[in-house]
Amino acid sequence: MKRSKFLIPLLAVALLQGCTSSPSKTSSEQPLSKIEPTILRGTATIGAQTRLFTPCGSQAQFQLQISDEQYKSALSQTQKSYEPVYAEVIGYLTIPSQTGYNADYRAKLHVLRFNTIDSNQVGQCSSTTDNTMALGTEPNWKAAISHNQLLIQTGNAPVKAFDLTNKQISAEQRNYQFSNGQLKMKAIECQPKNSDTLYGWLASLTLDSDTYQGCAKLSNYDASSQYIGTYSAQSTTSDLSTSLTLNRDHSAETRYSYSNGEPSLVEQGFWQKLSDDKIQVIMTLHQQQYLVTERVFTVRGKTLFTDKEKVGNKLYPISQGGLSLFKESH
Fold first, then answer.
1. Which domains does the chain have, with CATH numbers?
2. I need a surface site. Which of 132, 173, 233, 253 has the fewest CB within 10 A?
3. pTM above 0.90, yes or no
4. Where on the tree of life does the source sit, at the highest rank (predicted)?
């Protein structure tokens, strides 16, 4: 493992004096990061007192933050309250509550849009990820984006592949153009006739002289999955080693280990991608005690680097040029 020279990172407020310079402006004056949405697959359980999301293959629990309209849409897909449903959500994570039963959640998941909700596919976590797709009835048709092509099937006809010639993508609309027509998608909830599945997009397909109406959803591939793994480094000036694990469910763990036999210190929290070269890591539990710290890492190949840490509302520089962690190979 490569070695990186750094002092003990911020573990708790008691360690700050030995590790950092004076704090910068508070978070209200100087935001450390701007969050970009991600897509998460999992099981949603929604009722009058509970709004819970459990990512696929995870035991972590996120508290859903949804609007009244989204709440009604989710309930409409269940036979009764608190019935688990498969859901794909587009949103972002923030710190959980400090007190009450809400403090048991790993993070709050703010839902910008449901990509899909399906009460009949609770076990769909075992399936592979899907491409962006659209479908409709009367007549039946399907379309999917694959490798810069639009694959279209109408009725029982064979699937036809069309090269995409242009596309316009925004948060509210998508337009995929090809030689014989176009596929338009709008961010409006949609449910096909006689279907138990809710989709987050309204779709319109023009093919030659025909137009087809239906619903659509975006690819459920998590673009930040390339960062999943464990990153670590060993101090050259002390017996401390630091490791950061970014899990597939967007939970995270920082572990500080000592070669002299002292017990390891563990922080737990969550992570999310901010941009192509920025990752936000927020720890909310230090040795099972509530303490919020935030680091925004710059991605440099297989290395994560940061020179600042926010503890509470105060931003501190990390001493000796910052903290570099190197991705472990398995």
1. 13-31+223-327 (2.40.128.300), 38-126 (2.40.50.540), 133-217 (no CATH)
2. 173
3. no
4. Bacteria
